[in-house]
Amino acid sequence: MGAPVKNEPGSTSVASRDSFGDAIARLGETHPELVVLEADLSESTRSKKFAKKYPDRFFQMGIAEANMLGVAAGLSLAGKVPFCCSFAAFVAARFDQVRMSVCYSSTNVRIVGSHAGVGIGEDGYSQMGLEDIAAMRSLPTMTVIQPADDLETAGAVEALLTHKGPAFLRTTRQKLPRVNKEGYKFELGKGVTLVDGKDLTIVATGGTVAGAVQAAALLAKDGVSARVINIHTIKPLDVPLLVKAARETKRILTVEDHQITGGLGGAVCEALAEVEPVRIHRHGILDVFGESGTPEGLYKHFKLDADGIAAVARDFLK
Amino acid sequence: MPKDPESLSTLKSRAFDLRIDNLTAITAAASGHPGGTLSAMDIMQALFFGEMRHRPTEPHWAERDRFVLSKGHAVPALYTVLAHAGYFSRDLLPTLRRLGSPLQGHPANFLLPGIEASTGSLGQGFSMAIGMALASKLDGDKFRVYSMIGDGESQEGQIWEAAMAAPKYKLDNLCVILDHNKGQIDGFVDEVMSLNPIADKWRAFNWHVVTCDGHDYTSIQSAFAAARATKGKPTFILAETTKGKGVSFMEGKVGWHGVAPTQAQLEDAVKELRAAKAALEGGN
Questions:
Q1: What is the pLDDT of residues B229-274, one digit of tens each?
Q2: Quick check: B46 and B220 in contact, CB under 8 A?
Q3: Which residues of B touch A (CB under 8 A)?
Q4: Where does A13-177 sit in CATH, by number?
Q5: Alpha carbon distance A267, A284 (integer Å)
Q6: pTM over cut 0.90
Q7: What is the ipTM of this complex?
Q8: For chain B, N or C: smaller number of CB within 10 Å?
Q9: Which 8-state DSSP code applies to residue A261?
């Protein structure tokens, strides 16, 4: 590859938490209903950008996530669109508040869970959102979104301003190489085919999407034609697109920086088992705890980088 | 305050009808919480018949005052008060807890007008009330927010997270009422996990604290007036109440926290409440 072309895939690399922070700071200007709540992590979740611009619409709730979620629900019930920020791990830990105050009270709360997966690196398991997708997607009415790059994050935040019902937006600490093209239009609930192929479909989400695209290039060198689908909306899942891929490629490999139990892999298995049962291999965190390390070292260790995903795909095709 | 405040005698008289309808619904459902509904009933009537600005025929009026029942298990009392206030027909009350009824065992806000938040997992309604009060402040302080919490509920950590948060935002449009009936499902609060000293705790959290007799309408109204007059901080009303209030064989008995009366017990209760109402009206 030559020098990266501006505004093309791979040309830029931004953490989705930064893209989120930029988006709310920008959209706050034209959306007075947008309010933001934080639990002492505004530097980490990047809600600080909004806080500086709109101090009256920023609520610092302290290290009290349960109350924060309830307050967000109340703000929504009185007409606001609250983005409620914390680490994905800590939000999932307040499942009861998400279940009752956010979902069952029929709100438009947007829970932003940053620090998704082992990609956060050195802080280790306690700070890693690894079971949050499983928890959030089990709740009726909840929408679950995990963007793969800056364009997708911006599009998702904008869509969530008008979307009805509660939503969970999962963002990363680590930078995400751009996988979409400039002018990309985010469509809630629609998967995005990034690479076409016929031997296998790699279904990836969030921090693993760029690696999946690179893995497809590695596999192509072996003569394997891998399709890559980016699922940014894990709930509601784009079942028609997955069924089509299952019919055309016969094998599905799911890849995520999350437990394979209940996450994207679980969601894809549940959907396809009922409609188009094909061989599926779930790849991600294999029912173990995360650990400390560099983000790159952990992605290599858990085989979530391009080489790792390609190796898992080769094994699956044997 | 409403333009046409109800007379004290009307409130007192209706209190018997509310208790009868409440117990009748719980008996029909064959499950529910008589003790905590009867302790909360007078406060709820005072809210919906006098204190709050609201429009029963326009339940989503943006500037309405809000009431969030954080102790969700007392919702039959709220259903009864809402029906009497005109939010829906009293005929709905006996459908309490039946399949398909909007009168769920615990409040569901998307099913019934007048229910502002879905509660029932304790500790959460109070936080939602804070969010509504914050929204009101953002929009020019057009409405007040009231929330009722329970004794046992006060053992939840989230209550104290919320208690810390409201004074920070100077929510003088927020009034939290503790239905202090001293009982919870496993026994007396002082035995299960004491809250004492309650008023001191809330004062220490920077709340304006008022005490009232939760069964005396004059006392309740004075407490609400004191809350409305206080600027710069939220008000906590410690309402002294009696579990099972109004039915002699239920009063003060924690065993009546979560058990429905039998048909015979209901008849005894109704007889007693009707007699008390007649005595009150006869004395007027």
A1: 999 999 999 999 999 999 999 999 988 988 999 999 999 999 999 9
A2: yes
A3: 62, 66, 68, 108-110, 116-121, 123-136, 138-139, 157-158, 161-162, 164-165, 169
A4: 3.40.50.970
A5: 13
A6: yes
A7: 0.96
A8: C
A9: S
